[in-house]
């Protein structure tokens, strides 16, 4: 084989170096394949550079601001003087830089050839980068997503997306967040903690509309208590901006004014002008359509991550990358089903869910074939110590396994690990009820909820 640095033929050629792409590459070299990884910007993609990692860093700074504000009730007298955005950004950027350096070192140490530049698919087995052709016996498309806007809504000036919000060097006095999904509620949460007057506008009937109704109710109540304003069920009409700020109009004529508008209406797939359609790949509203084994139906071309319809989560792309590498190796890996992928929304309070909502379970198994159980965190010692409320809600098939777990409360994202094992291993409440949960932890709330669902509730 030619020298790695100049090699232009690979067993697997991956287009995109984000969570899905680099996971494909790492698993593939582990399985003995030669791998070329094409990346136009930076390894790590959206998640590392302008998604999961930077937003969580901001949310940690926000948590510390809230702690300072509320410290007196815990007997600690500190005051919140100010938020220094340049220091917040330096902390955030330091985390990213460290992880980026680690990832670069890992990719290099495994002998993966990184091809820098924008790649374009040409035919079934070729990717052209900066005029040079590279071939792969197998090709994996992992080109990721971008911050979407609405038709006719121009991004610019005081109308921004999460990309600009993550690099802001000042704190606005007021902000309107268009979109009450995951990205919208996380930014609203950060800004409120930083002292911003925040209003969320969501056209659907509730905030976080994909969550279980009990979670929605809890989040909306918590946001009201925090002073985060929101309007739901009325769609956005338009925005005007001038030197003073923005004026947003809804379809019913209501208007809202603020310093800036954050457009958080979701992320769109990066698939345009990359040669996908010309190669015969099926594209629907920008997404790459695959079979359940992530094959595109063309040659040996697969697709992973945010360009494949479904939940847009870094860990889904990562898992799909591993899956495709194993699929190419003929290992026949188990299919990764979206419904069983854990999801965390890191606003305050945090939301952590896996599996079916009550509504979805009833649609799938039948109205009278579903049982639910709620455990209130008011009965949990550690949650009381932390000063948080919230719930754990279980959804089970009648006389069958637990098919959904939905949690809300400060730090409850950390409980998703056991929750996803319960759902993915199709555990019965009785199986979990006999396991010992350490005291005092928030993790106990999961144990207590399963005890209750098994008919052995000791608390509540």
Q: How is this structure best described in words?
A:
The protein has 460 residues and is an alpha/beta fold. It has 3 domains: 8-146 and 269-338, 3-Layer(bba) Sandwich (FAD/NAD(P)-binding domain); 159-265, FAD/NAD(P)-binding domain (3-Layer(bba) Sandwich), CATH 3.50.50; 349-454, Enolase-like, domain 1. Helices cover 32% and strands 25% of the residues. It is built from 13 helices and 24 strands. Helix 1 packs parallel to helix 8 (314-328), helix 3 (52-70) packs antiparallel against helix 4 (85-109) and helix 3 (52-70) runs parallel beside helix 6. It starts with 8 loop residues before the first strand and ends in a 7-residue tail after the last helix. Residues 341-449 form the Pyridine nucleotide-disulphide oxidoreductase dimerisation domain. It catalyses: N(6)-[(R)-dihydrolipoyl]-L-lysyl-[protein] + NAD(+) = N(6)-[(R)-lipoyl]-L-lysyl-[protein] + NADH + H(+). One of its GO terms (cellular component) is cytoplasm. Keywords: Cytoplasm, Disulfide bond, FAD, Flavoprotein, NAD, Nucleotide-binding, Oxidoreductase, Redox-active center. It is found in: Cytoplasm.
Keywords:
single chain, 460 residues, alpha/beta, FAD/NAD(P)-binding domain, 5-stranded parallel β-sheet, EC 1.8.1.4, redox-active center, Dihydrolipoyl dehydrogenase
CATH superfamily of the largest domain, called what? FAD/NAD(P)-binding domain
Number of helical stretches of at least 4 residues: 13
CATH fold category name of the largest domain: FAD/NAD(P)-binding domain
**Shape field:** globular
Please count the beta strands (DSSP E, at least 2 residues each): 24
Strand content: 25-35%
Helical proportion? 25-40%
**Which regions contain 5 or more consecutive residues with pLDDT less than 50?**
1-5
Estimate the mean pLDDT confidence: 96
EC number: 1.8.1.4
Keywords: Cytoplasm, Disulfide bond, FAD, Flavoprotein, NAD, Nucleotide-binding, Oxidoreductase, Redox-active center
Organism: Paenarthrobacter aurescens
Protein name: Dihydrolipoyl dehydrogenase
């Amino acid at each position: 084989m030619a020298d790695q640095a100049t090699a232009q033929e690979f067993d697997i050629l991956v287009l995109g170096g984000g969570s899905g792409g680099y996971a494909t590459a790492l698993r593939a070299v582990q399985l003995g394949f030669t791998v070329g990884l094409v990346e136009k910007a930076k390894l790590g993609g959206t998640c590392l550079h302008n998604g999961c990692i930077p937003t969580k860093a901001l949310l940690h700074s926000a948590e510390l601001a809230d702690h300072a504000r509320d410290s007196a009730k815990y007997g600690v007298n500190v005051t919140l003087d100010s938020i220094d955005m340049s220091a917040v950004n330096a902390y955030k950027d330091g985390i990213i830089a460290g992880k980026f350096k680690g990832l670069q070192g890992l990719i290099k140490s495994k002998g993966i050839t990184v091809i820098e530049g924008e790649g374009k698919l040409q035919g079934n087995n070729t990717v052209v980068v900066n005029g040079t052709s590279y071939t792969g016996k197998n090709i994996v498309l992992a080109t990721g997503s971008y911050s979407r806007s609405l038709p006719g809504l121009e991004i610019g000036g005081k109308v921004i997306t999460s990309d600009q919000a993550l690099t802001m060097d000042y704190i606005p006095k007021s902000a309107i967040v268009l979109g009450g999904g995951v990205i919208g509620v996380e930014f609203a949460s950060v800004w409120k903690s930083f002292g911003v007057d925040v209003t969320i506008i969501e056209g659907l009937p509730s905030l976080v509309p994909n969550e279980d109704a009990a979670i929605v109710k809890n989040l909306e109540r918590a946001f009201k208590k925090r002073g985060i304003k929101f309007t739901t069920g009325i769609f956005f009409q338009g925005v005007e901006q001038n030197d003073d700020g923005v004026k947003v109009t809804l379809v019913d004529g209501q208007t809202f004014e603020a310093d800036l508008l954050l457009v958080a209406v979701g992320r769109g797939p990066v698939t345009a002008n990359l040669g996908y359609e010309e190669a015969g790949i099926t594209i629907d509203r920008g997404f790459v359509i695959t079979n359940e084994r992530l094959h595109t139906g063309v040659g040996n071309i697969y697709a992973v991550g945010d360009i494949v319809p479904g939940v847009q989560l870094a860990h889904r792309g990562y898992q799909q990358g591993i899956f495709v590498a194993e699929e190419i190796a003929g290992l026949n890996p188990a299919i990764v089903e979206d419904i069983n992928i854990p999801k965390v929304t890191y606003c305050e309070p945090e939301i952590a869910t896996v599996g079916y909502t009550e509504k979805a379970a009833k649609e799938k198994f039948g109205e009278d074939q579903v049982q639910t159980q709620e455990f209130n965190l008011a009965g949990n010692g550690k949650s009381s110590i932390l000063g948080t409320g919230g719930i754990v809600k279980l959804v089970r098939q009648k006389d069958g396994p637990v098919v959904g777990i939905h949690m809300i409360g400060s730090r409850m994202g950390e409980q998703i690990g056991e929750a996803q094992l319960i759902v993915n291993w199709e555990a019965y409440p009785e199986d979990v009820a006999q396991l010992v949960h350490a005291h005092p932890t928030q993790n106990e709330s999961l144990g207590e909820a399963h005890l209750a669902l098994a008919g052995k509730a000791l608390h509540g």
